[in-house]
Amino acid sequence: MIQPTPSVSALPVPAGKQRLKILSYNVHSCIGTDRKLDPARIAKVIAAEQPDVIGLQELDVGRGRTGGIDQAHAIASLVEMGFHFHPALTVAEEKYGDAILTALPARMVKGGELPSHGEQRGAVWVEVEIGECKVQIFNTHLGLLGGDRMRQVGALLGSSWLSHPDCRARPKILIGDFNAPSITATYRALARRMTDAVAAVNEKPKATYPSRFPFMRLDHVFVSDEVTPVEARVISTPLARLASDHLPLMVTVEV
């Protein structure tokens, strides 16, 4: 009888290393490809993968179009994690933005806007503790315009974010929907400074968008030199194809 080969993430962790499962997921305001609004479906997709840290994009908080729900709080409650949300866009009491969820000890370092001429974009930075290691996690959703994306990448790589003194010589992980396939200048600018975790372990990385018939790789996880990617896969279950217009991306790393 042939025994199945265990996934890399199931293998023993080398001495002195910690393993993290990172999930990036654009949830499309929890509106699925069937046009139904259902945060519980998003939570179910996440819970099935048991990630340690989650970066969510396109969350509605208090918006009339999605019933006034705080989607960040609702999803975090369902998966039993803490969360840190930052609104990229605020209109009156309505908010729209990104969040980092984790059950690990974590503190919010910063949430802020990124330079935008089109729809306003932002980022959130959280420090997560795993054992004695403090990992700097960044989550973002870049713009649709190429010029905006390049300005936003410049800001993220600059001294206010990834090159901040508090980040020096510390493990850094940048999660997000970058609206940038690998042929774009946006992607190349990031890949020159950080490692594309998916491309590092998969010869032919899979697409994440659109979820029903994916042909574009818009969602990425980039890591600093202190972080070693060990496994990456796109979650393409029937529920994931239904719950949002993006498929979630799972990356396992060692720090």
Task: Characterize the structure shown.
This protein has one domain: Endonuclease/exonuclease/phosphatase (Deoxyribonuclease I, Chain A), CATH 3.60.10. The chain starts with 18 loop residues before the first strand and ends with a strand. The strands form 2 sheets. Strands 3-4-2-1-12-11 form a 6-stranded mixed beta sheet. The protein contains 6 helices and 12 strands. It is 20% helix and 35% strand. Helix 1 crosses helix 2 and helix 3 packs parallel to helix 4. It has 255 residues and is of the alpha+beta class.
List keywords for this structure.
255 residues, alpha+beta, Deoxyribonuclease I, Chain A, six-stranded mixed sheet, 6 helices, 20% helix, globular, disordered N terminus
Low-pLDDT segments, ≥5 res: 1-6
What overall form do the CA principal axes indicate?
globular
Structural class estimated from helices and strands:
alpha+beta
Please state roughly what percent of the residues sit in beta strands, choosing from under 5%, 5-15%, 15-25%, 25-35%, 35-45% or over 45%: 35-45%
Number of domain units = 1
How is the main sheet built? 6 strands, mixed
Radius of gyration: 17 Å
What is the CATH architecture annotation?
A: 4-Layer Sandwich
- Please give the alpha-carbon distance between the first and last residues: 36 Å
Tally of helical runs: 6
Instruction: Give the CATH class.
Output: Alpha Beta
The CATH superfamily bears the name: Endonuclease/exonuclease/phosphatase
